[in-house]
Here is the input.
Amino acid sequence: MQLSPSARIALRVAAGFGFAVIYVPLLLVLVNSLNPDRSASWPPPGLTAHWWSVAWHNSGARSALWTSVQAGLGATGIALVLGTLIAFAVARHRFFGRGTVSFVVVLPIALPGIVTGIALNSAFSTVLEPLGVGLGLFTVVVGHATFCIVVVFNNVVARLRRTSGSYEEAAMDLGADTFRAFADVTFPLVRSALFAGGLLAFALSFDEIVVTTFTAGPGVETLPIWIFDNMTRPQQAPVVNVVAAVLVLLSVVPIYIAQRLSSDTATGSRV
Amino acid sequence: MTAAAQTAEAAGRRSTGTVRRLAGMLHRRPRLRLSLLLTAPLLWLAVLYLGSLTVLFVSAFWTTNSFTSEVVKVWSADNFRALLTTPVYRQVILRSIGVALAVTVLCAVIAFPLAFYTARVARPRWRPLLVVAILTPLWASYLVKVYAWRLILSQGGLADWMLRPFGLSGPGFGLPAAVLTLTYLWLPYMILPIHTALEQLPDNLVDASADLGARPGRTFRSVVLPMVLPSVAAGSIFTFSLSLGDYITVQIVGGKTQLIGNLVYSNIELNLPMAAALGTVPVVVVVLYLLAMRRTGALSSL
Here is the structure.
């Protein structure tokens, strides 16, 4: 399309403005972690790394991080198994209600988190509590896994749809049984999709706050819950600043891995 | 060959035999294979998830004892009647839909020129890097992004500092702050589909339009825009539904503003049936929005 030079300049300016809007808040979080002052007034009176060492020794933040990692790993594990099973059923079989299955998988992430949260909360308290199982890390993992299934499913089903079943048939014609064909042919084909789906599932779980609020028992505090609880306390502000900065820095890791994978899987879309 | 080795080999043969038989059975019976694949996930999703959802929405038709806050399991549509007739509820519902629409429009207005630049103006060599630059903030924590806006909008923060030379001050915490923050949060979900659509737009269509005498403005209106609109609609599904259900952002930067999610949250402890009834509102609105967007072909370009 032939654009006039002035239109090109206007678009460049608009795009520059857009990228500034996207990145200035993230940069501000990084700079603010070096702010010696407890208030967020701009510009900061100076720069110091003092709060980074304070945050490193903060036991609340540390144990919250550990809880988040545990919840994320648990939820990712369950989501990998269940998501892959559904993906194989939907991509390799025709059955009544196939469309409904793919719809139900998306539902936990399509509905507002608060609806999923209170539904699971009342179900857990009516079913599990009489059995003597209270809300705790276990219920957080169950809640997270429910909405993580969809990202694994999406990645694996997309891969299976692109690779036809003829590879497996060829393996079987050459004498491999169902298990052998899966291990030697199908699994290597979907491995990177599984990895991408697992990465997305972990990121989704690590970042989740609403469902966590309703499924975590007393004393179970994930990192987002910790940040939310401490955000409004002026005493804790510098430590929250550092934790926020660390999370911004960490968000580069999955992008780097996704680029290294350089696969066509939907690593970009988190839904 | 020793006797022990022979026995071991025979056992090995037997176990491979079992595995082969099992594999053969699975191969011959696709129904069995299918049911093995689906049992665990369907138990999880249908029984655990859909079951809890159903119980929640059934409980919307129950009431609570106003003294003890205990749920009374008597059927009535009182909660839904209250939803439609109480002025506060109606106001909050309309405000939430208004916020979701405002966020969607703002996202589209900011995203379009940005995506047009990254997909058609920037040098092809730079385009993959620009896509990464759009994607990266999606991986940054939701809460951290809201926190960033809390820092920007707080008293004496970046917004105040930037506006001071003009004799103005930042919007502070309130409804505009909530709209602004939600726009920031969901912006990448709008940029990406528009970028993809613009990138896939065939050059020869644009050339043909120019050959037939259309000026750039006309080409944009008659060729580019109709082909990109389904993607705008696809992006709007995210921006609209994510904004409608949000209550954390409003709690952090919204001041005293209440949206539908905050009403649900404040009712959970004292009146769970009312919270459930309020919770149906965003679900129904999002479903209606999805049905409306399906007519534009947005769902197939998701």
